């Protein structure tokens, strides 16, 4: 019955006096319920339409969200994903549904990915950073996952938001590099200061030697006596000056060696480091910043070695020392000090850098390790030094903290885990052989630095028969023609044929001659050369070297007296 029919029937009954009153009341009640049902039906239709519109808006937002979203089951198979996720994975959405997600995960990170999914399926909200491989392109992502109950599918789902952080990581690397460039500036100033003094001494001594050898003779002295006297006097002065020049050159060599410690690439995990040695190198490099502001007090005790990276640890110490110096005004070195403590602790090894500078206010202290937080003037830093130091120490399983009082100076404390391995006494490769005097031998020098090769040949010719070539190919031809050498001094890094390639060719054709090679290097390694150096059993000597060090390596290869 329609509403109109019901209304007409009601009117008919109301006008009929013979209809029972109950029937008329029942009809009135039916009319009221009919009207209520129509109103509820209208409200339901409106609610359903609003729900459909809301769902459409949600799906539109879900599909075109700026981050990729994917739903994974317990087997890490894709059950649903938005259009952004399909775009990130580079495939059609309908094709991806039901596929395992694992082909998109970098093989090195598969274990962490499965652990992430298991934790989410077990009911945890988890976040993990890993690498994906998509169409031969590697990207870094952060996965944010929460458990999801979906009535349409059996079991719990893992709803995951995938955030591409590749550009963020690249930006962090660039910012970190900017901060390291500031450290390099300090480092360069320290090196220039350290080198300039011995360099001036070296140049002055060479000038004195040259002057002594060229000095004109007085005209009033007997010619024969004068000749012998002048020769004796000039030679003596020249020898003394050259001896001083040698000392200056060795000092520069030590400085370059120290710099190499800071410049060396990251050491393998588990490498032990002498903390005192790294501290001393950092103090040398920070000399320019410190010397006009404070005097350094070393408060060391003997401590075990730590498991760390010497380069990163050196960067941390250099940052702390430079910050300590910059907290003290210039021209007050006699009234201020930077105290460096080295102690053992329950956690391992404790290093403290304490200054008598202006101190840090409490409201600043709580943000001291935050990235980009700085109290320095514009152009004096990005505020990343302490943040990077905090991160580097954490990567070495250590900790860093600070205590400070305004006007009372600051103390930065670094805790590092001690190594359980016994302390090793370093032994140079060039000093392992017994000190014996080699007899005359036949030696081949292969080095594409002609001036060095010629000089080395002249140095050896007083005792040995020495051949020199700047080309490894020519050296190979000489050996193939029948020449045999007691020792072959070969540079590791050469432009056309590297020392490694020369050694491999020789080992294949004439293995006995390959066992006669002593490698030389200026210290600059490519990754492949570094790997070769770590694996080879052949001796290695670093340029510049003393004649005594080379003789020690020649002893096992030449007949001995």
UniProtKB/TrEMBL annotation:
SUPFAM superfamilies: ATPase domain of HSP90 chaperone/DNA topoisomerase II/histidine kinase, CheY-like, Homodimeric domain of signal transducing histidine kinase, PYP-like sensor domain (PAS domain)
Record-listed 4-aspartylphosphate modification sites: 491
InterPro entries (alphabetical): CheY-like_superfamily (IPR011006), HATPase_C_sf (IPR036890), HATPase_dom (IPR003594), His_kinase_dom (IPR005467), HisK_dim/P_dom (IPR003661), HisK_dim/P_sf (IPR036097), PAS (IPR000014), PAS-like_dom_sf (IPR035965)
Keywords, alphabetical: Coiled coil, Phosphoprotein
Domain Response regulatory: from-to ranges: 442-558
Reaction(s) catalysed (UniProt annotation): ATP + protein L-histidine = ADP + protein N-phospho-L-histidine
Matches recorded under Pfam families: HATPase_c (PF02518), HisKA (PF00512), PAS_4 (PF08448), Response_reg (PF00072)
Enzyme class: transferase
Boundaries of every Histidine kinase domain copy: 190-420
Record EC number: 2.7.13.3
Signal peptide: none
Residue ranges that the Swiss-Prot or TrEMBL entry lists as coiled coil: 23-61
Protein name: histidine kinase
């Amino acid at each position: 019955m329609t509403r109109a029919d019901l209304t007409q029937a009601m009117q008919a009954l109301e006008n009929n006096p013979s209809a029972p009153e109950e029937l008329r009341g029942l009809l009135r009640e039916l009319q009221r319920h009919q009207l209520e049902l129509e109103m509820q039906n209208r409200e339901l239709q409106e609610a359903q339409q609003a729900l459909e519109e809301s769902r459409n808006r949600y799906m539109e937002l879900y599909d075109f969200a700026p981050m990729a979203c994917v739903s994974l089951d317990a087997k890490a198979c894709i059950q649903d994903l938005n259009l952004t996720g399909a775009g990130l994975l580079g495939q059609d959405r309908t094709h991806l549904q039901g596929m395992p997600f694992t082909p998109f995960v970098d093989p090195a990170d598969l274990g962490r990915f499965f652990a992430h999914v298991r934790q989410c399926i077990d009911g945890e909200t988890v976040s993990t950073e890993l690498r994906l491989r998509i169409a031969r392109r590697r990207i870094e992502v952060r996965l944010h996952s929460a458990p999801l109950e979906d009535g349409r599918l059996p079991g719990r789902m893992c709803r995951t938001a995938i955030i591409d952080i590749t550009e963020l990581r690249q930006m962090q690397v660039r910012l970190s590099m900017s901060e390291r460039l500031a450290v390099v500036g300090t480092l360069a100033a320290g090196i220039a200061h350290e080198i300039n003094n011995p360099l001036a001494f070296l140049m002055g001594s060479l000038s004195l030697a040259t002057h002594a050898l060229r000095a004109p003779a007085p005209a009033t002295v007997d010619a024969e006596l004068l000749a012998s006297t002048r020769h004796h006097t000039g030679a003596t002065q020249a020898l003394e000056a050259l001896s001083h020049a040698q000392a200056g050159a060795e000092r520069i060599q030590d400085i370059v060696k120290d710099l190499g410690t800071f410049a060396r690439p990251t050491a393998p995990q588990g490498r032990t480091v002498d903390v005192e040695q790294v501290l001393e190198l950092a103090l040398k490099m920070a000399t320019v910043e410190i010397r006009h502001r404070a005097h350094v007090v070393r408060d060391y005790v003997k401590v075990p070695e730590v498991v760390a990276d010497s380069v990163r640890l050196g960067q941390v110490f250099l940052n702390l020392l430079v910050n300590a110096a910059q907290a003290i005004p210039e021209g007050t070195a006699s009234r201020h000090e930077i105290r460096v403590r080295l102690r053992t602790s329950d956690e391992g090894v404790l290093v403290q850098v304490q200054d008598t500078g202006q101190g840090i206010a409490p409201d600043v202290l709580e943000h001291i390790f935050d990235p980009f937080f700085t109290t320095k003037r514009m152009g004096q830093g990005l505020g990343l030094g302490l943040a990077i130091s905090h991160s580097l120490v954490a990567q070495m399983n250590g900790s860093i903290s600070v205590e400070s009082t305004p006007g009372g100076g600051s103390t930065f404390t670094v805790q590092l885990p001690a190594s359980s391995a016994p302390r090793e006494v370093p032994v140079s490769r060039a000093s392992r052989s017994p000190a014996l005097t080699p007899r005359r031998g036949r030696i081949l020098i292969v080095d594409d630095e002609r001036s060095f090769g010629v000089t080395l040949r002249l140095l050896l010719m007083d005792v040995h028969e020495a051949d020199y070539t700047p080309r490894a190919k020519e050296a190979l031809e000489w050996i193939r023609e029948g020449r045999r050498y007691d020792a072959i001094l070969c540079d590791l890094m050469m432009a056309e044929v590297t020392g490694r390639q020369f050694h491999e060719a020789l080992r294949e054709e004439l293995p006995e001659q390959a066992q006669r090679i002593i490698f030389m290097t200026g210290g600059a390694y490519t990754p492949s050369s570094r790997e070769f150096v770590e694996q080879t059993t052949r001796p290695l000597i670093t340029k510049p070297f003393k004649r005594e060090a080379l003789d020690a390596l020649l002893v096992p290869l030449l007949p001995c007296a």
